[in-house]
Amino acid sequence: MYPHQVLVPSVTDFMPELREAYVQGKDFAASNLSREDKNRFYDHLFTKTIFKEATPPGRKEFLYATNGYAQSFALQKFTILGILNMEGIPFTSEQNQILKRFSYAFEQSYVRFLDLQKAESQAREARIEAALERVRSRSMAMHKSEVLGELSFNW
Question: Are 78 and 115 within 8 A, CB to CB?
């Protein structure tokens, strides 16, 4: 399945804290939606987005029946990690601290992944450059056309 863009009606209506934290460069945001606001949010998702077809009827019923919507987000340079509950009960300070620590560890892992990708790319480029240099040096030293067969590429 391919990713789909989901347009949420005015982020300031449903997640103003997240947008504000992102714009201001903060590392944490939390918000709560009342039952009415949560249901208004789901009305939009289930009538105007891919979730209309993608969400089973039983799941829709469950989501509409919940009391509210509480969410906390930990924002890093490359990632945003969030947790939510459907009771509308805000997460405790301790729970939010755990989220922040987990987010930091996840961010470190992702940065390490990016570093490894970069190192692999650099190693590949170095192998290509070394192979080209071997070809250059052998061709410069070539006195007979039979030596041409000795040039091989071991990638």
Answer: no
CA quadruple 61, 62, 68, 72: dihedral sign: negative
Domain spans in the chain, listed from the N-terminal domain onward: 11-114
Question: Token digits for 132?
Answer: 């080209």
Alpha-carbon gap, residue 13 to 77, rounded angstroms = 25
For residue 140, what pLDDT is reported? 76
Q: What angle do CA 1, 45, 2 make, to 5 degrees?
A: 10
Residue 86 CA, distance from chain mean position: 23
Predicted local confidence at residue 41, as pLDDT: 86
Q: Which residues of the chain have pLDDT under 50?
A: 11-12
Residue from 30, 39, 21, 40 nearest 84 by CA? 30
Phi, psi of 74 (to 5 degrees): -110, 120
User: What's the whole-model pTM score?
Assistant: 0.68
